[in-house]
Design a protein that fits this description.
The chain has about 170 residues and is mainly alpha-helical. The protein has helices at about 5-20, 25-30, 35-75, 85-95, 95-125, 130-170. It has one domain.
Length: about 170
């Protein structure tokens, strides 16, 4: 993921933080100082990083469960996923750059969706009526699960295409 991509992801996640943060006792103070745009952008970036880290920790186990399930659907005759996801993504980026860019875009969408889960959970505490935050948390969780499953399925398919491409090139 390039720096501009991460910058945008964290800013989007940080901006989502404003939805619930404006409902807290600190909200008016934040709004009052909002004219100081560079400081606000920096604060949103840092908030986005913090929310993303919380979301990473929160979704780590569900992600493992989901990936095992998706793997069984895409490669039912294989017993394991063939190694590190980082190695798989690097191989895809090296040998099929277009697939690698698509994978990076999907990964970006997944990180924004998982950040929305944490922001929605905070919204439960601060946004009234409470059911709006609960509905947002449920919807964002379902959305993240869907996106994560689709992205991992795409990664597995892309890896299979690259493996086949490499196998054919070594036979020549």
């Amino acid at each position: 993921m390039s720096i501009p991509g991460l910058l945008i992801e964290y800013l989007v996640t940080g901006a989502m933080t404003l939805v619930w943060l404006m409902q807290t006792p600190w909200g008016p103070s934040i709004a009052e100082h909002g004219a100081k745009l560079p400081v606000l952008v920096l604060a949103l970036y840092v908030a986005g990083m913090a929310i993303d880290m919380m979301a990473f920790v929160l979704t780590r186990q569900p992600k493992r469960w989901l990936r095992r399930r998706v793997f069984r659907n895409y490669r039912p005759h294989e017993s394991h996923d063939g190694g590190s996801g980082t190695e798989r993504q690097a191989r895809i980026a090296l040998y099929a750059p277009d697939l690698g860019r698509e994978l990076a875009m999907r990964s970006s969408r997944d990180r924004i969706a998982r950040g929305l889960i944490v922001n929605s959970l905070f919204a439960v505490a601060y946004v009234q009526p409470m059911w709006i935050g609960v509905l947002a948390a449920v919807c964002s969780t379902v959305m993240w699960l869907s996106f994560e499953g689709l992205s991992y399925g795409y990664e597995l398919c892309a890896a299979k295409v690259v493996e086949e491409k490499l196998r054919l090139s070594t036979q020549r």
